[in-house]
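[job 4471] stage=fold_predict status=RUNNING
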Amino acid sequence: MLSWALAPLLLAGLQATTVSAIPSISAVGSKFFYENGTQFYIKGIAYQLTPDDPLVDTAQCKRDIARMAELGTNAIRVYHVDPSADHKGCMTALADAGIHLFVDLDTFTTQIEQTNPHWNETQFDRFKEVLDEFQQYKNTAGVLVGNEVLTTPEGVPAAPYVLAAARDVKAYRDQKGYREIPVGYSAADIADLRPMLQNYLACSSNASERLDFYSLNAYEWCGDSTYSLSGYSALQKNATDYPIPIFFSETGCNTVKPRTFGDQSAIFGDQMADTWSGSIIYEWIEETNDYGLVSYGASVDPSTATATDVQDGFTRQGTPTPISPDFQNLKSQWASLNPTGVALSAYKKSASSASLECPASTSGGWSINPNSPLPTLGQTYKKGDDDYTATTTAGGASSTGSSTTASSTKGAANAIAATSPVTERLLAGSLVLSGLVGVVAFWL
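[job 4471] inference complete, writing C-alpha cells
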C-alpha cells in the first residue's frame, strides 16, 4: 500500500511548474513590476551563444551566468530555442542569479515576413510550443512574436499580422491558464515607420488586440554623443505617455570604439527612466560583427575547423573572457545607474488610463486602415486589399474571404483544434496526470 509519506512526493513530482525563489514579472500600464510591487528595469544582454539554442548546456550557462552577474545583468534575450529540449538546468541557473528571460517565439521558417505576410497554423503551432516550454519558469519575463518584421515602408501590410500573432498567443496563454506572461514585439529602428508602427501596435481599445509591451532595436547613440545629438530625445518624445512598457531590445552602437555605453545614463536617468523600462545590450559573444562582450578564443577558418564547439568560425564553449574595455565600461555604467521607479501601489492610484489614437492611413505612407479588422488565423495578405481581404490556406483549403468575414470570425483562434500535435500531447499529458492523481486518491 502507498504510504502517506510518499504521497506528497508523488504529487510534487506531478507539478509542471519549476519552483524557484525568483519573482515573476508582470506588465501593468506602461511599466514592468516584480511581484512585491517594485518596478523592474531591464539590464539585459542578447544571448544567442549557439545558433539553435543556447539554453541547453547547463555547464556553459553557469560559466556565462557568473560573468553576466559580474556585469549586473538581470535579463537576457534569446532569439532561437528548441522547444523540445530540456532547459531546466539553464533556466534554474539564471533564476538563481536573479536573471529573467525574454524569448522569441519564432524560427527562421515560421517568422512573420513583410513580403507576402501571413499567419497560419504552422506558425502558430511553433509559437505555442515555445510558450508551452517556457511558461513553466517564473523567470520568463516576456515572449516576442517577431523581430524586425517591418524594415521598409513597403512592409507596412505585415503590421496587422504581427498583431494577429500577438492576439492569438495571448488567447492561447489565457485559455491554458498560464501566468500572464507579457507578449511583445521587437522593432527595427526605421525612421519612416516611427512612430506609426509603435502606436499602431498599442492603440487598440481592445486589450486582446494590442501588445503587452513594445521594444526597439536602436543603434543611434554612437561614441561620445548626447541625448539630443543621438536622437534619443526624439525617441523619448515619441514614447511619452505610451500606454504599455517600452524598452530597447537591442542597443550598443560600435561604429566608434571602444564602446562606452553612454546611452545607458540617459535610459536609466532622469531623462528617460520614467518612460523606458531599460535596455538589452547587443551582444554576448564576440563574432564577425565585433559586438561581443566576451570571447571564447580566437576566430578560426570555418573551412578547416573540426572542433564541435566551433560554429561559423567562432568557439562557443569554454571560459568567457571579457572583451576589454567594453565589458568593464558596461559594468561601470550599470553599477552607477539604479533608478527606483515607482511602487505598484502608488502607480495604480496615480496612473491614468492612457490611450493612443491609432495612426491614420496616408497615401504613399502608413497604409493601414485603423478600422480594418485583424487577419484571422490562416490568412495571407493580398496586395491591394487595404481591409485585409485574405486568402485562407489553413488546413489545405483555399478560399477568399472579405473583411466582413474576417471581422465576424475575429478571435476564432481561441478555440484550439484537437488535431494540433501540441494539443494532442497536452491532452495526453492531462489524461496521464488525471490518472496518476486518481491512483493517489484511491490508495489514500
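[job 4471] summary: Confidence is low (pLDDT under 50) at residues 1-19, 388-444.
[job 4471] exit 0
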